[in-house]
Design a protein that fits this description.
Blueprint lengths: L37 H13 L11 H4 L5 E3 L5 H6 L11 H18 L13 H30 L1 E2 L5 E2 L15 H7 L7 H18 L28 H16 L9 H19 L24 E3 L4 E4 L1 H6 L10 E3 L1 H6 L33 E2 L4 E4 L4 E4 L23 E2 L17 E3 L4 E2 H16 L10 H10 L13 H7 L3 H16 L5 H8 L10 E2 L2 E5 L2 E5 L3 E3 L12 H6 L14
Antiparallel strand pairs: 1-6, 2-3, 4-12, 5-11, 7-10, 8-9, 13-16, 14-15
């Protein structure tokens, strides 16, 4: 079958050389082959998990923070820098891969779901576990479709150039256009982007359908008997489960409730976001609160793919050092791909939880800026004169970014951050590439975790009822207190005494919302969420289009002098939305482009 050099969301060239259906049909197998083998039928579902990113070093992860005021990518020619500077071209769109992979996943699950063909497949000889497996796979199919649709809506939903708030084309049937020429596709395929609200309703409906078939969670202690453990239980950790579908609904409603997407200020959307987030929180704090299980005060371990804080995560990469290579400076044999901004550094307050300059106990000194800071700060950012221990040989390394002779200073080499800050989050300091035996740890992407649900609940509950009024039995103030007091990523005590939380909770909904936005920024930095948070919180481009700063450091005897008037990045967005892939807008009739991307059609 001939393939064409176009990206069509519905292309499935089953007999050509592509990886759409790996590992089941090969180049010589037809679509019909899928249904002759129970393993390939399961493969329709299993392959969907391979479409998901598995680490934070991608354009939907830490790199996307480089388009915000959280960070700056080091390379001047980096595609994210071009995106942030308003110079993105259709030829180097960094986001079209996500459009493609999401529709690949949707095609797979639509094949499985159509006419219940996947559900009615006989997978096992024994009737009872076979029925359980059939149900689980059908639930996964609905949940995965919800997941891929939510990703499409989050990334590509926006106001079209026709003035309507649009989502993505909803596809509930497998559509194969593999045999059509580009002209035939353009003439005969007329898929339109559905309205944003229609997409929300479809995602929620798929989550509800999935919930009917899935176990609430993949835990051995939730499985009734040994026979059921053949197909249920912790062996399925990392696959979709019921509680994940509830979390997806919480995230969907949170975005739909936000100012950019809630033009009528419908408060019921905030209520629903709080409801579903609280349901997930309750599950973790009760059902999942078992021996060696979840504890709301327990730290996040980025190197533990089974960390109890996880609600849904990618499949992990074992013995992996991608994040250390990306984040360390050249002096530590890293690539310094991205650096934290001064704006993000300033977002962290003081040790007692007060913002910089407001603490009654700890004065902020601009010339000694990293003293007595929020304990979470030290587990997220490397800064000037910070010493760490690396590798099995316990070698000491001190970050030196002074502009005179600092080995880690911006411009010293191409593998140094432009901001003079480096990222500690996700980094395993035990890696040292000079060791005879290099110690590496697993890495994965925690798509949804406990903290995300706490943040969603706190924001939604505050918008719906204010900081101190209980919503579903919990206040926004109490919820955010869970995160501020939690042990840091380094295993250090959090903000254990928190008078500022009490003070700001008495300042009203608007002030508490600003506080929560800052808490969300701190908690989710470098996870690829900041761009979409600014997008949904605002209705103009003002918050996106701000200069981004680093710090300039000079040596002054035995001390350092700090200059914060050091612009390292400019943001010149022409749209608050990502573009619909250019080739889709050109080759599929009636695909409306997002506003601000008029030339991409």
């Amino acid at each position: 079958m001939k393939q064409y050099n176009i990206i069509i969301i519905f292309t499935l060239a089953l007999a050509s050389c592509n990886d759409f259906l790996d590992p089941y049909p090969s180049a010589i197998r037809s679509e019909d082959y899928i249904w002759t083998n129970q393993a390939t039928v399961q493969g329709l579902i299993g392959q969907c998990y391979e479409y998901m990113s598995t680490n934070y070093n991608v354009n939907e992860g830490a790199w996307l923070d480089g388009a915000t005021d959280n960070a700056v990518k080091t390379s001047s020619t980096d595609v994210i820098n071009r995106f942030a500077a308003g110079r993105l071209s259709p030829a180097d769109d960094p986001f079209d891969d996500y459009w493609i992979r999401n529709y690949r996943g949707i095609f797979n699950v639509n094949m499985f779901l159509k006419d219940d063909r996947g559900f009615n497949t006989r997978f096992l000889l024994d009737a009872y576990p076979n029925t359980l497996l059939q149900k689980r796979l059908k639930g996964e199919a609905f949940a995965l479709r919800a997941w891929f649709q939510w990703d499409l809506l989050k990334k590509f939903g926006g106001r079209g150039i026709d003035g309507q708030m649009l989502g993505y084309p909803i596809l509930l049937e497998p559509v194969n256009v593999g045999g059509m020429t580009p002209d035939e596709i353009k003439a005969n395929i007329t898929f339109r982007r559905n309205k944003y609200e229609e997409c929300v309703r479809q995602i929620v409906a798929d989550c509800d359908s999935a919930y009917k078939y899935l176990p609430i969670a993949h835990r051995d202690f939730l499985v009734e008997n040994t026979e059921a453990k053949q197909v249920l239980g912790s062996q399925n950790w990392g696959r979709m489960d019921g509680i994940t579908t509830v979390a997806i609904k919480a995230l969907v409603y949170l975005t739909w409730a936000s100012p950019r997407f809630n033009e009528t200020n419908d408060m019921s959307r905030w209520e629903m976001a709080a409801k579903y987030a609280k349901e997930v929180m309750d599950f973790k704090m009760t059902t999942d609160n078992v021996v060696n299980g979840f504890s709301r005060s327990r730290e996040v371990n980025w190197f533990d793919p089974n960390n109890p804080c996880i609600i849904f995560a990618s499949r992990y990469k074992n013995n992996n050092d991608d994040m250390e290579r990306a984040f360390y400076p050249g002096g530590l044999q890293g690539n310094g791909v991205i650096g934290a901004s001064q704006e993000l550094t300033d977002a962290f307050g003081m040790a007692d939880g007060y913002p910089r300059g407001e603490s009654p106990t700890y004065a902020y000194d601009p010339q000694n800026p990293y003293l007595n800071r929020d304990p979470r700060f030290y587990s997220v950012i490397f800064y000037n004169n910070r010493t760490i221990t690396t590798g099995s040989s316990a070698k000491q390394y001190t970050f030196d970014v002074n502009s005179d002779d600092g080995k880690d200073a911006a411009g010293r080499n191409s593998n140094n951050s432009l901001t003079n800050y480096y990222i500690k989050k996700f980094v395993y300091s035990g890696v040292n590439w000079s060791d005879n035996t290099i110690s590496r740890m697993p890495h994965s992407l925690f798509h949804i975790r406990w903290a995300h649900m706490v943040l969603a609940f706190a924001e939604a509950a505050n918008q719906f009822a204010g900081p101190t009024t209980p919503v579903f039995g919990l206040t926004a103030k109490e919820a955010i207190g869970y995160l501020r007091s939690r042990t840091t990523y380094d295993g250090q005590p959090g903000i254990t005494t928190d008078p500022y939380l009490e003070q700001i909770s008495l300042s009203g909904k608007a002030a508490f919302d600003r506080f929560l936005c800052n808490e969300r920024r701190i908690e989710t930095c470098f996870e690829g969420q900041r761009f979409f948070d600014i997008q949904r919180w605002t209705t103009t481009l003002g918050e996106l289009n701000k200069d981004v700063h680093g710090v300039s450091v000079t040596r002054n005897g035995n001390s350092f002098a700090y200059n914060y008037d050091y612009v390292v990045g400019k943001r010149l967005f022409t749209s608050a939305y990502l573009p619909i892939p250019y080739r889709e807008a050109v080759n599929i009739a009636d695909i409306v482009q997002n506003e601000g991307w008029d030339s991409w059609r």
